[in-house]
Each structure stands twice: as structure tokens, then as C-alpha cells.
Amino acid sequence: MKTTTRLIAAAALAACSMGAYAQKGETVKIAWIDPLSGLMAPVGSNQLKSFQFFAEKFSKTNPAGVKFEVIGIDNKLSPAESLNALKAAMDQGVRYITQGNGSSVAGALIEAVNKHNERNPGKEIIFLNHSAVDPDFTNSKCSYWHFRFDADTSMKIEAMTTFMKDDKDIKKVYLFNQNYSHGHQVVKFAKENIARKMPGVQIVGEDLHPLAQVRDFSPYIAKIKASGADTVITGNWGSDLALLVKAANEGGYNGKFYTYYTGVTGTPTALGQGGAGRVYQIAYGHYNMGGQMDKWSAEFKQKFNDDFYTHSVVRIYQALGDAMAKAKSTDPVKVAAALSGMKFSTHNGEVEIRKADHQLQQPLYMTVWQKADKKFPYSPENTGMTLAPVKEYPSYVSSTPTSCQMKRPG
After folding, report:
1. Superfamily of domain 154-288+363-398 in the CATH hierarchy
2. Is the pTM of this model over 0.90?
């Protein structure tokens, strides 16, 4: 009798153990859908390397014991090509996708994932958004299957203008952005925040230009100079920011730039030694974070002769590993339930995937372009310059409300 009881207990313990580690050793495929051709290819290439680099790191350390594999697919920065990429990924059995370059692309993917998951129960897909920051994605267009690991435009502008309002030298602002949903949202929230916090500041001009098509920004710089603007707010990224600041340097524009993406491929080189003390970046990370992030950045640079700047990659792997361990499964339905509302520790403290809209709540940092020194030594693209932190905004400061009415499964 005792022997039988012991055997039953041992079997039950083994079953529990198998349940707890059912996914151990399993390979989790993540389809990366972003540009590897065209003007934005350098950004895409850097980010694909980042996802692959950290897939190797977190395959060894995640608490779920899974192995991450990244499949890179060039979407040519096109929503239509991205939908083809999504289908190709699904045909390979992929249940997790990530994308971030272009909110127009992200919007198309969110809609496609929603339709697929509704029509194909048991084959659900999760969309891990690493950089597409249109606020609508966690407001009017929010989706249970979409999780954003970057801070959205409303959050960034909230922190940016909180910093700007204390600068009494800012009198005239020019809004210069890309002509798609992200650029439109930068303009919208910049106008709202300036009116609320800086009523004495005048907006003297605004432009929306084609995404990833302009090669010479000198006419725009001439227009900005003619407006008398002492400050430019821009959400431009990739070649559209690199070529803009290059034209500003060459055209002798000495005003300030408030940006999202100064640290991204191409822009540090375009700035060079110029823009010191005049170019600012608001972001959820920077090049001089310290601790483990500095060690990873140094290793990444040694391996690829490139700079790691998409810190959301790290948070995606941290969140997935924790959620899969909690769910005891790699099934997207169970993992999504674990991700929703989850709090987890990162290189800059505890962060939270807000349950109401799946927007990561996290600190933001204002940094300024200056010479690298002993305190802030990291030099992107070997420019001898860096982005030095000047202000940190905790999650509760940068957080903005959501209107999301999320439709949840079941």
C-alpha cells in the first residue's frame, strides 16, 4: 500500500514537473518584418542584428528554458510587402512577429493579426511592437494581440515638452516631420502640449515630407531659417533625420533640435562634431545606461562594429521568457494572458505592460549631443561624441491616459 502511494506521488510530481517545464528546449520562432533595402536598410540591418544577438543571449538565460530563433524578412518599408511577409512567416509555423519601422506598416499588421486570430482559433499570433509609436495603436486601434515596448508619441512629447518649458530661450518652434501617421501624431501632440505648457511660445511653421524619399533637405533648412525658428521638433528617423541634420550643419542653422532618434544609425555620423549642446533626444534608453547594458553594448560593437540602440529588443526577450515561464507554455493564447498586465525587472528598474492597452510603462530620458568624456564615454559611430543624459522622467511622469476598449478572447 505504501509502495503504491509512493509511486502515485512520484508520478504526480513528475507530471507537475513536466507541466512546469513543458516548453523547455522548445524553439520559439520570431519573424522580424522590417526594411533591409532602400534608404532605411541600415536601420533595419542594425535591428535585425540586435534581435539575433539577443536571441542567442536570452536562449541561454530565460526562465522558460526556450530557445529563440529570429527569421528576418525584408518588407521594403511597405504595408503590402509586410502582409506578404506575415503570410510567409505563418507558412513557416511562426506564432510571434515583431516590427517597428513605420507606423503605417504596424497598423496593417495589427489589422491582419486581428483578422487571422479571429478566423483561426488555435493558430493565434502575437505582435511584439519594438518601435512603431503611433498612439492610436494603444488607444482607438488597440488590440489584445499587440504589445508595444517603445513609448508612444504622446508619452515622448509629454516628457519632451516638460523639459522644454523650462528653457526660456525657446520662443519660436518649427514642426518638421515625415508625412505618415507617426509624423502627423508628432505634430498633433506637440501643438497640444506647447499650447498647454508653453503658451508664450509660437509655432512658426510646419512641414510634412515623404517618408524615406528625400535626399536633399537643404531647401527645407532654408525655409526653417527664414521662419526665424530657434527650435525644431522632429520625429524623423533613419536617413530622414541623418540627412536633415547634415543639411542643417551645411546650411548654418544653429537652432536646437528636439528629436526621438538622434542615436539611430547614420545620424551620429551626420552630426559629427556639430550640434553639440543643441541636439536633444527623448527616448526610453540611451548609450550610457551603465551596468549590464553597457557590457552588452560593448560586446555588440566589438562583434558587429555597430551600435546597439533598440533597447526594446532586450525587454521583448525578458517579457517573453517571463511570460512563457509563468504560462508554462509557448502557446500565444496563454502567453498573451501572461503578458497582459505583467510587471518585470529590466536594466532601469521595474516596468509594466499596462493591462488596459498593452502599452509598456517605463522611464524616459532626455539626452543631449556632446563630446564623450570619462563620465559618459560611449561614442556612437566613433564620432567622439555621445548622448549624455540630462533628465530622467519616471514612468508616472511620461505615462499618458488611454481610451482603449480592448476586446479580449472569451
Report:
1. Response regulator (3.40.50.2300)
2. yes
